[in-house]
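Supplementary Note 3. Input sequence used for the single-chain structure prediction.
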Amino acid sequence: MNTIAKIQEQVSAIPSVSFLIYRREPESINIVKSIEDLVRSKDSESREILNEVKKWAEDLLEISLESTEDFIEVLKDFIFIAFATNIPGSKELKRKILERLGILKIKKSRMYDLINEAIRTGKLYYIYDVEALSDIVKYEISRLYSKVCGKSDQTYCENLFFRFDSKELLRHFTHIFTLNKLDSVYEELRKMVETYKIELEKTRSYVGISENDILVIAYLAGENSKQKTLIYQGEIYLSIEKHVHLLVQVNYYDIDLNVFKEQEKIKELFKLNVEAILYKALTDFVETLIM
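The predicted structure, written as discrete structure tokens, is reproduced below.
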């Protein structure tokens, strides 16, 4: 039995790539908490990264961060910005942050390459962990609403450059499955999206937000056949005294549609995956307004 066939044999549920490589799930799938822990770290390697982030942020803002209120919170936000955007100068910082969080080590395993090859040849399918990515999106909604708009006279705040485009990060949160599970995974995601829509509707009504003041959409924005990548965009609009617009890019790597028999269903599966992430993030954020 070849190695890819062995991988297929192991995929009895929809395990994460990390589980297949390390025989255990990641210690933490909460990147927001991991970044918070990094900010509080006292070891020399972490402090070196934090100093680099501080200098990068100060060059961008042309101010001294230490002179700002809530210096630690500001530093955490800029780690997050470097981590989730492609602002000039952030690429190398992102690599160092991912390395420090232990995410890049996934690339060092031969299994990592085999899994990517199995996906490229249509032997394995995948989706991203909804809870893990929604935590990150929720953080950005909160940052825009409470910090960008909340600490200024601005009433409209947006981020059009938020993206999940690091393959290593996304593989860290990838759950894989075989073709015979496509229908069941698709149906599970569809039901998940419907559940989050209902929860958001209930929370919206409770908080007193108009139906026209909250919106989530997701769509396939592009395809790079040479790099075998599908690019999805998701958008969140929220208006509660302040207006927030967040554009989220989510890349699906190693996808050659020509090798998939269910091309349209695969594209719809990814769209549902993005919708589930956005609806959960927005629902969780709006619920914080009740507390």
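The two ends are 55 Å apart (CA to CA). The chain has a mean pLDDT of 84.
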